[in-house]
Design a protein that fits this description.
about 75% helix; mainly alpha; 5 helices
Length: about 190
């Protein structure tokens, strides 16, 4: 029996989403043992949040560029921008999870009032959007990479892609605000 990925996009989306979210929550909740991965020097670990802020900013730019290219119907440029965005997201996620497995989530160093009234709500929305984006991103990426550009108009790619890009942008922007509160403001 021949398995055609194009015919299994929803199933593959579900499998990849569950595996990715299990990895993320496993890292954040401490289910992945610290000794399971080699430890980088402290200077490298300390640089990860700053590198990730740059990666996030680049991802914001590439997502916006991809949206502009799609609106201009420059679909080859759109595809390249969105694949670059996905690659940047993967780099961000690998670095973030690496640091979290080794050191746990960052502690908020600011005042308790800011923590409760500003930081936690922003972080919660950022995390919620990031979780919701995972299946949307897999879905639109699988549609886009398993079909020629001319066949995408027969799918939900554009509709789901608009939602995914919007949520992804807000999540990255909020992630940078969280970064600023953790490492710049306080």
């Amino acid at each position: 029996m021949h398995l055609d990925v194009r015919d299994r996009v929803p199933e593959l989306t579900a499998i990849l989403s569950l595996a990715s979210l299990a990895l993320v929550f496993g890292a954040v909740l401490g289910a992945i043992p610290r000794g399971a991965i080699p430890r980088a020097p402290d200077a490298v670990l300390a640089a990860i949040p700053h590198i990730n802020a740059v990666v996030s900013t680049l991802a914001i730019v590439t997502i916006l560029a991809g949206v502009v290219f799609a609106r201009r119907r420059e679909f080859d440029k759109h595809r390249a921008s969105m694949l670059l965005s996905a690659g940047l997201f993967a780099v961000f996620l690998v670095l973030y999870l690496y640091k979290v497995v080794l050191e746990g989530p960052a502690e908020f160093p600011g005042p308790q009032a800011i923590y409760q009234q500003v930081y936690l709500p922003l972080l919660a929305i950022h995390i919620l959007l990031a979780v919701v984006c995972i299946p949307l991103l897999y879905y639109v990426l699988l549609l886009a990479t398993t079909r020629p550009i001319t066949a995408l108009s027969d799918t939900a790619h554009a509709r789901a892609g608009r939602v995914a890009a919007s949520l992804w942008l807000v999540s990255f922007v909020l992630g940078n605000v969280v970064y600023a509160l953790l490492y710049v403001v306080y």
